[in-house]
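Q: Could you predict the 3D structure of Protein-L-isoaspartate O-methyltransferase?
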Amino acid sequence: MPLHQAYANDTVLTRHSDDGRVASSLSAPWLQADMLEAARIRPGHRVLEIGSGGYNAALVGPTGHVTTLDIDPAVTDRATRYLARTGTTAFRW
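A: Sure. Here are the predicted structure tokens for Protein-L-isoaspartate O-methyltransferase:
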């Protein structure tokens, strides 16, 4: 999917399980921005991220701590990999 479509405010991205059911979805960019503003996440914070995507939690930086939860193991695995690239430690449950 082209980036301009992925980041459009009306786009709903979903991931399907092996049996064809929707396993997870991505919040619209405007909603993510609103949540980030309300949460006031800053470097060094401890964050519990439910419905993990990793990006929001990565804002804590290498001095922060993230615990990420999701019903879809593929999502938490991906978040853990990408958070590690930022120097952020993430723990999966």
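Q: Anything worth pointing out?
A: The first strand starts at residue 13 and ends at 16.
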